[in-house]
Amino acid sequence: MKGNIFYAQSGGVTPVINATAAGVIDAYNKNKKSFGKLYVGKNGILGALNEELIDISKEDKTQLALLKQTPGGAFGSCRLKLSDFKKSKKDFERLYEVFKKHNIRYFFYNGGGDSQDTTNKVSKFFKERNYSIVCIGLPKTIDNDLPVTDNCPGFGSVAKYIATSTLEASLDVKSMCETSTKVFVLEVMGRHAGWLAASAGVIKEKAGDAPHLILFPEIQFNQGSFLKKVKETTMKYGYCVVVASEGIKGSKNKFLSDSGLKDSFGHAQLGGVAPVLSSIITSKLKYKVHWAVSDYLQRAARHVASAVDVEQAYALGLESIKVAKLENNIMLTIKSTTIKQKYKWSISSTSLDNVANVEKMLPKNFIKSNGFEITRSCKEYISNLIQGEDYPSYDNGFPQYAKLECKTIKKKLPAYKS
Asked: How far apart are the C-alpha atoms of 66 and 21, rounded to whole Å?
């Protein structure tokens, strides 16, 4: 089936989502005879709804060459979760009109759980309309919470950033703890799954090393136990480093940092758990506390990306063009093996039904019985994903990242209001 391709990026971006885009583009350029044009949606699925399609052949090749080393979403992303096509009939009918008008026969959606749900719904809708289209989900999420796939592109690089930042900050606090800050709290992303918080634990080699406490969403926060551990650690080592997931919950199953607001996906808007924990420590233990929120810095830190992560993200993009000729209604996955203590991986796939709206939590055997540390199995798993450095090229002292025009083609349909 020779038709045009629609690729788009969705949800929160990562340090390596553009590496997947680069893989798609490079594979397409080698297989042009099998396809029509490659269009990229401007701002995710909104690009399809608004008929804002970027013709990739019009972009500067010099800038496209930098795409693999560029953080963020080079074509724009969005947080838009489509409802069931019977409830959101207007949106799905619009997709049908746009895809039919532009002969789009391949749909590649690069995102996390909610995005794979969208891919699945799009696939089912077009099947019902008897419109021939291949729908492929490309995994992406720093949270590492997609099921079936062994890991998610983006996680390895953010894990490397968090581990590095925790190590460096801990040395700062340790050097000043005699007369200054006693406790440092680093807040990392992770609403329900503690993969990112766990990543800080890879730097711990012996008792007394930071991080001294890791707070996981999977473990209910107990203020008494927390304060006891902070005090014991500070008394024994002179300082204490805490890494906390933004999604930790108290006894009433309520986020400690719940702001009372909702985001565009309907999730609780979290307002910052680090200052909450710092306030508890200061008021109860009277220690001087400093805190930081890694926030966008962690998911944009391409300068310290994992080579394994970049390679996997790029390979998924390359594979998408290949499997589009053979399979449909799937998400590509990463399958791993360890042979003679050496980490190996390959690309596989699973049905979209298996991944849409399913979250993979941190396994119980990855958290020590004390609830504040990771196990050896967890450390080995994360260590495999942060190996190697893939530094971007530098010029004049700072990284060189792609600057794309992202000009859209001429529209053929009337303007649309969702």
From this structure: 11
pLDDT tens for each residue of 9-27: 999 999 999 999 999 999 9
C-alpha distance from residue 267 to each of 155, 192, 215 (Å): 21, 11, 21
Q: Which domains does the chain have, with CATH numbers?
A: 4-141+303-358+388-399 (3.40.50.450), 155-301 (3.40.50.460)
Q: Classify residue 361 as exposed, middle or buried by CB count within 10 Å of its CB (0-12, 13-18, 19+).
A: middle
User: Residue 404 and residue 56: Cα distance in Å, rounded?
Assistant: 10
Cβ–Cβ < 8 Å for 203, 167: yes
In this prediction, the residues of the chain whose per-residue pLDDT falls under 50 are none
Strand partners, 230: none
Instruction: State CA 12 to chain mean position distance.
Output: 6
Specify whether the backbone of 87 is left (phi greater than 0), alpha (psi in -120 to 50) or beta. Answer: alpha
Task: Answer yes or no: are the C-beta atoms of 357 and 117 closer than 8 Å.
Answer: yes
- Give me the phi and psi of 188, to 5 degrees please: -125, 165
Residue 55: strand pairing partners? 39
Nearest to 135 by CA among 367, 418, 362, 324: 324
Separation between Cα atoms, residue 48 and residue 102, nearest integer Å: 10
Q: List pLDDT tens digits, range 171-207.
A: 999 999 999 999 999 999 999 999 999 999 999 999 9
> What confidence score (pLDDT) does residue 258 get?
76
Residues 239, 177 contacting (CB under 8 angstroms): yes
- H or E element that contains 313: helix 307-323
Tell me which residue of 135, 134, 153 sits closest to 143, measured CA to CA.
Answer: 153
Question: Residue 15: is the preceding peptide bond cis (ω within 30°)?
Answer: no
Residue of 26, 117, 143, 150 with catalytic role: 143
DSSP bridge pairs for 185: 242, 291
Q: Which two tokens stand for residue 259?
A: 């702001």
The yes-or-no answer on residue 209 being catalytic is no
Query: CA triplet 138, 304, 338: central angle to 5 degrees?
Result: 60
Residue 262 φ/ψ, nearest 5 degrees: -120, 145
- DSSP tag of 217: T
Does residue 48 contact residue 99 with C-beta atoms inside 8 Å? yes
3-state secondary structure of 97: helix
Output phi, psi for 380, to 5 deg. -65, -40
